[in-house]
Write a structure and sequence with these properties.
The structure holds two protein chains of two kinds. By secondary structure, chain A is an alpha/beta fold. Chain A has helices at about 55-60, 85-95, 110-120, 125-140, 155-165, 185-200, 210-215; strands at about 15-25, 25-40, 45-50, 70-75, 80, 95-100, 175, 205-210, 220-225, 225-230. The longest helix of chain A has 14 residues, at about 125-140. Chain A is globular. Chain B has helices spanning about 1-10, 15-50, 80-85, 155-160, 215-220, 240-250, 260-300, 305-315, 320-355, 370-375, 385-410, 415-420, and strands spanning about 55-60, 90-105, 110-115, 135, 150-155, 170-175, 190-200, 210-215, 230-235, 255-260. The chains are: A alpha/beta, B alpha+beta.
């Protein structure tokens, strides 16, 4: 039951009639409603929309960071709603790399250790962890900052460490929730360029407010009031 | 192992944080150690008092005051009573006295007492006042046995005109033929004593007494054998009733046995009250320590909900996250306990003295104050005590940490991140 090989016609991500509702006191808020979506194995997809439109909620459902209220979310052939917590943990560890708006680095670990952390969870040997983390930091041009703790790094540097961390276990999917939201526009463009490059080898889904940055994506999804709008290529 | 290592490393995430948490955990540990040490010291004081304070029975000839020249009260105990009493279990010490009276002026009189110089010179008939305090000169010594020397109360010294500078050469002559309404004459030569010391007792009758070596008394008063009073000290107040029962069974037909009521009072009131007070302080401190440690660890976890959510988001298992936080909790608690113990080593003694410096003495009759004050409160704790306290603290830390982390870890990653 967990395998949905046909969902979306071989797509990496397949959402079918997905809804997400939150209870806020007596009121029920429908963050997402009737979402149908299929996304391919590679390429960069931007989800844009006004605040509160449900774009982050959509990203969280795809990344198994939250559970849908209705419908089916299938990623890499796994129906997330049916997976036990241990399988969701493995999914988040092995299949998805998540980039947060506020970076969310572990403050008492340096840049290299932050990148190695997901590999530790995956049981990668220490030498291999270090080798891979060093290479990833080199890819995001932070080799010289490997031993620095997050508070010693600029916002752009922290986000690049977060991107390197997201790639640590070589996931098939990278999800980025407003990754430039706390950065200036120049640094934001650098981060987008980095994500664009990453998207050459895997799927990258980015939530953003910035239409100009969304324009760099291979595909742009508009969302409003919890529903997907007409798509712009 | 990875998560245990991460938990251990979290200790050093910030020096200020570590100091603050160690201080928060260390403070109640410190307080608990202080209270525990007070309780322990009070316990030791109480035990010491039980062994030393008036565990003393007085034996004298049945129906007699036992004064060798007192009208109607000259009967004394047989000499073999001494050996019999010494054979009774839990008897720690036996002190034989010989007593007489000597007229002074008007209807007044002084007590004349023969004691072994190494024994207690008791100033009251029930022996509750302890030794007199030497004001001038010296006390009796073992070398005085058989010699005509004496120490006298300041009342006797005043009556006899003895000045401090005269001590060692001053003479006091007792006329054993002089009578008094309650004193009959003894056909014995006068006894001239060299006064070597003057003592103070704090009350008039106590100052009207003359102490000399018991064999000097025997020779002077012609008492070849027999004992006026026999003071019998039990090894503990707990054993006093049993000793008394044995003595009554053995000597009840020839002796009156006077049991000090203060022992029972001390046992039932002072000891119990002090112990209850100390135990109450320990219980309160322990409760405070558990509550503080629990909530400190709870706060330490809850302030890091975002971090827990992030760890979940990048693939940490719930069990791993719990293990990391519990490891951190145990180590933080151990550091806090170490800080508390170090503080205690530095300032525990002075604080304990300040909090309960007098020990049990405020609860004792005034005439025990010297003994009570000599039993200085010495705060200390053993390794076993520390282990129990640290164990309780670690248990509380685990509880607080586990409860906090469980509440967060069961959320989805995004719910945990938003939890703050």
């Amino acid at each position: 039951m967990n395998e949905v090989r046909s969902a979306g016609g071989g797509a990496l991500i397949a959402l079918r009639d997905v809804g997400k509702a939150y209870r806020r006191g007596e009121q029920v808020v429908h963050a997402l409603d009737g979402i149908d979506l299929a996304l391919p194995e590679r390429g960069m997809v931007a989800i844009v929309g006004p605040s509160g439109s449900g774009k982050s909620s959509l990203l969280h459902l795809i990344g198994a960071m939250d559970r849908p209220t209705s419908g089916t979310v299938a990623v890499a052939g796994q129906v997330l709603g049916t997976l036990p917590e241990s399988a969701l943990t493995a999914f988040r560890r092995d299949t998805v790399g998540f980039v947060f708006q506020s970076f969310n680095l572990i403050p008492n670990l340096n840049a290299l250790e932050n990148v190695m952390l997901p590999m530790e969870f995956a049981g990668v040997a220490a030498d291999e962890r270090k080798r891979r983390a060093t290479r990833l930091l080199a890819q995001v041009e932070l080799s010289a900052r490997a031993t620095h703790r997050p508070r010693e790094l600029s916002g752009g540097e922290q986000q690049r460490v977060a991107i390197a961390r997201a790639l640590a276990n070589d996931p098939r999917l990278v999800l980025a929730d407003e990754p430039t939201g706390n950065l200036d526009s120049k640094t934001g463009r650098l981060i987008y360029a980095l994500l664009k490059k990453i998207a050459e080898e895997r799927a990258v889904v980015v939530v953003t407010h910035a239409q100009s940055l969304a324009a760099l994506a291979d595909r742009v999804l508009h969302i409003a009031d919890g529903r997907l709008q007409d798509e712009a290529a | 192992m990875t998560m245990l290592r991460i938990g251990a490393r979290n200790l050093w995430r910030g020096k200020l944080r570590l100091l603050l948490v160690a201080a928060l955990i260390g403070a109640p540990f410190f307080l608990l150690l202080v209270m525990q040490s007070i309780g322990d010291a009070v316990q030791r004081q109480t035990e010491s008092l039980k062994q030393n304070v008036n565990n003393t029975l007085q034996l004298r000839a049945r129906g007699s005051m036992g004064h060798v020249n007192m009208v109607g009260n000259q009967a004394i105990l047989p000499q073999d009573a001494l050996a019999k009493v010494k054979g009774v279990p839990h008897v720690a010490r036996v002190e034989p006295y010989l007593l007489a009276m000597t007229p002074t002026e008007g209807h007044n009189f002084a007590m004349v007492i023969g004691v072994d110089p190494k024994d207690t010179r008791r100033l009251e008939s029930h022996g509750e006042a302890g030794s007199p305090k030497i004001l001038f000169g010296r006390d009796l010594a073992e070398g005085d046995l058989g010699k005509p020397v004496a120490i006298v109360g300041q009342g006797v010294a005043k009556w006899a005109g003895i000045e401090p500078q005269d001590l060692g050469s001053a003479r006091l002559t007792l006329d054993l033929k002089r009578t008094h309404p309650v004193i009959f004459a003894l056909d014995r030569p006068p006894l001239t004593l060299t006064v070597v010391g003057v003592y103070a007792s704090g009350y008039v009758f106590g100052d009207m007494q003359v102490f000399m070596p018991i064999d000097t008394f025997r020779q002077a008063y012609g008492v070849a054998d027999g004992i006026s009073w026999l003071f019998v000290r039990a090894d503990s107040a707990d054993h006093l009733p049993a000793v008394e029962r044995q003595l009554r069974a053995m000597l009840g037909s020839v002796a009156d046995i006077i049991s000090p009521t203060t022992v029972a009072e001390f046992q039932s009131t002072a000891t119990a009250a002090v112990q209850r007070l100390a135990n109450g302080g320990i219980a309160l401190s322990a409760a405070l320590m558990v509550v503080v440690v629990f909530f400190v660890m709870l706060l330490v976890v809850r302030e890091r909900a975002r971090e827990i959510g992030t760890l979940k988001a990048i693939g940490a298992s719930d069990a791993g996250i719990v293990a990391a936080f519990l490891t951190e909790a145990v180590l933080l608690c151990a550091i806090g306990a170490l800080a508390g113990a170090s503080l205690f080593a530095l300032w525990g003694g002075p604080l304990a003295q300040l909090v309960f410096g007098l020990g049990v003495s405020p609860f004792l009759p005034a005439h025990y104050s010297t003994l009570a004050n000599s039993l200085a409160l010495s705060p200390q704790f053993g390794a076993a005590t520390l282990a129990v306290l640290v164990g309780a603290g670690v248990f509380a830390a685990l509880g607080g940490s586990a409860w906090g982390v469980r509440q967060i870890v069961r959320l989805s990653p995004m719910e945990a991140i938003r939890h703050e």
